[in-house]
Amino acid sequence: MTDRSFRSILTGSFSTPCAENPTVVMMEAGYAKAGIDARYINCDVKPAHLADAIAGAKAMEWAGFNCSIPHKIAVIEHLDDLAESARIIGAVNCVQIRDGKLTGNNTDGKGFLASLRKLTDPKDKTVFLLGAGGAARAIAVELALAGARHITIANRSIEKAQAIADLLAKNTRCSADAQAWPEGLHIPEGTDILINATSIGLGNRDALPPIETDSLGNATIVADVIPNPPMTKLLREAKAQGCKTLDGLGMLVNQGIIGAELVVGATLSAEIMEKTLADIFGVQD
Ligand code: NDP
After folding, report:
1. Which of 9, 14, 26, 95 could pair covalently with 67 via S-S, beta carbons 3.0-4.6 A apart?
2. Does ligand 1 come within 6 angstroms of the Cβ of 196?
3. What atom in ligand 1 is closest to the CA of residue 69?
């Protein structure tokens, strides 16, 4: 018989070492505000120890865990079930444990989508996606499942962009194409949503994806996945062109909220989680 009366619900993340983990602080602030007796613990799990770590989480009756690079693909062989988008994306970052059964989800793209929906519904929209890594793949799949009309993926190595376009063609009704990324990339007229899903801008407020920012029309919503610093150079340039913008903090917060709904079955406060991250990242109002 399970007796949780003497301890908190255990959740956490299997990741690589990190001195200060903003996600841990954000999740625990969310749990505390919601009055949930749960902990979120960051564990440094080496690839060779992933199976043991999962067995440990099951043995300790964790409610679930997140996993980051390098575990997002390797974790799949240890799961009992996969949510639809995680199956299409081929990567899992959130695992729910119920009665010893493990279900894999991918909340990266879902977090982005929840954040985007505050500005617009992606249904029938034309999207231009910069980058073709894990975040871009997850975002592309969720936007396609949400009814986006067309997604163009631009990446330095066009093969990775083409692989995402092929994935969408095979698994969704959204049309997609891939293109190479020359210096000074022109953003086509009629683009409803431009998304930077590269790592350009992470930890560097002056780094700008090499696009022609003058080509941005003011009807284009410009989103960045970079959570820190949230007001990236791309977003500042887009604002100057009159575009509405969306930062990566919202994606991170919403991903945490969706994960908590799956793992502990509670809706956490976006406000307190956003404030916690903004404090950590030193964001000025
Ligand atoms: P990956 O390493 O899988 O992909 C990185 C992408 O960035 C690739 O497409 C890569 O292109 C591109 N890239 C990197 N440097 C350059 C450059 N100088 N010029 C052009 N393209 C470049 O990383 P992820 O997809 O996992 O993560 C991407 C970013 O998303 C990270 O910064 C991460 O912090 C952020 N992220 C934010 C989340 C949030 O909640 N806000 C959640 C998840 C991720 P190429 O393939 O040619 O190398």
Report:
1. 14
2. no
3. 26
